[in-house]
Give the backbone structure.
Amino acid sequence: MTALALQRIVKQVAELPVPPHLLDYDKTCADFSWDSARRWLDGLPENGGLNIAYEAVDRHLLRGCGDKTAIRWLGKTGARRELSFADLAQATNRFANALKTLGVQPGERVFVLMGRLPELYVALLGALKARCVVTPLFSAFGPEPIATRAEMGDARVLVTTPDLYRRKIHGLRARLTGLQHVIAVGDETVEGPGVHGWNALVDSCSPEYTIGPTDPESMSLLHFTSGTTGRPKGAMHVHAAVLAHAVTGRYALDLHDEDVFWCTADPGWVTGTSYGIIAPLVNGVTNVVVEAEFDAQTWYGVLERERVSVWYTAPTAIRMMMRLGVDALRGYNMPALRFMSSVGEPLNPEAVVWGLQAFGLPFHDNWWQTETGGIMISNFAALDIMPGSMGKPLPGITAAIVRRTANNSLELVTDPAIEGELALKVPWPSMMRGYLHEDERYKKCFVQGWYLTGDLARRDGEGYYWFVGRADDVIKSSGHLIGPFEVESALMEHPAVAEAGVIGIPDAMAGEVVKAFVAVKPGFEANEALRRELLGHARKRLGAAVAPKDIEFRANLPKTRSGKIMRRLLKARALGLPEGDLSTLESDERPIADGAHP
Ligand code: ATP
Ligand code: MG
């Protein structure tokens, strides 16, 4: 356990408003098998096999849940749309038929580029019904990141809006030689080769469609990683992954029939697909989709008005809410909210506990990657939380801390004080089946039946996993191995700190020394006195060997579109090195006041 662990949050299961699905962790793990969990799903009744869209949508109609709201869409300007499971079944059937009309074949790639509009959800699920491979992209991507991914992924069809088409795609058409069809949402006429208006094309198609035989091992989604550590990789997933979505929705997010679920992630990031679309629908719950971007008041309004009961968000958003303080929540009443969780980056212990102050509930951190397709390590509703820990492995997942030895074999680390690489025993249904066009890189991830995640962690005596850092980000200073997360979390404990990013700077004596970039909360001044105070605070909390030697203030830190601090960019800039692939950079850092830039 790290020195930073705040007090354990003890769960009284009898006091929880709903009994959690996973009550006895050890027994569930012991009894669990993916083969028997497969019975939670139906499989295709007519043609056989397993299709994500059938499990997410159509099968609920046979259970008499057709009228239940599947997607509750809340538009930016106050518009609302409710799509029942029956509506969604028909709409996705129409879309699958539209692809057929265009002659699009199973296995061909359909890219989706738009904000969180209802058509995004219809297109993605409809294309899965047609057994096409879907890649959702962030609508805020510029033309270059779109072109690179579309070329790499061999996009045959693109679903987008007229505005995005004109601004970003039109100029790329000559370059995207494989792109045959563009479906532009709405009825506006858009000029361009192979461009079809959604309304004319899709709405005129039949709402009846029979999904063809779908091999569970056939490709379903191609997802690009966040690009936090380098050029984004294309992770290839298959239809069988839906089993992991069903299981994690039930055990890690504790979804129950009557829940109203909200995942704040955009489908351009794997969380927004696995949990913003598939997991809640497979579990038959109502899924709230919010078109607007983050704004604390908007979000609190959604939680209250829509009576969200299970909420899945990310550390960056939580830190932004913390920046505004608990006062911003005054006047909101959220009696329905019962379970909150977070993913994407390490969740600082301060943030877990802030959840208790602000919402009366802790945030449950969980860990996974684009590559793993679904949640692998999680804090569960019935289990105590150790703030700062990612939790325990999902039933069905065997995790370990390992070290690679010189002859490329593995050594298991059992000492809770020693960190090593987080490894997961293969296989499980949602594991990627390859990196697009990067076979060697894919093969290198596996050693002796383990998938090596590239993240460093520790496991304590109780079996909780503690994130240390990405292997690339870990700092080696005077013989110590320092994880940026530990240092960032210590800084976050100081009332002035809104966010922190920590890197190693080469040093002749120590090898590397720790440097921190810090953004302060409103009401605090980023001055020399505060800098000294923070250096002192960190030294007291971490000891001189681990504490930062230097702190620079920033108005904010550079982040990916999926909300992760880009430490590699802080480092490249600090060292004057090339900045590398910036295609996923969303908010760049802003210098403070005088504009000093490293
Ligand atoms: P790239 O692989 O392109 O550098 P990325 O790793 O950020 O980008 P994702 O697949 O979106 O792309 O993110 C997975 C990574 O995010 C994990 O490997 C881990 O480093 C980090 N992460 C996710 N959840 C957590 C968590 N709960 N605690 C700590 N780290 C997390
Ligand atoms: Mg990664």
About this structure: Residues 225-230, 232-233, 343-347, 365-367, 369-370, 390, 453, 455, 467, 470, 562, 564 surround adenosine-5'-triphosphate (ligand 1) (CB under 6 Å). Confidence is low (pLDDT under 50) at residues 1-5, 594-598. The longest strand covers residues 497-507. Residues 85-101 form the longest helix (17 residues).
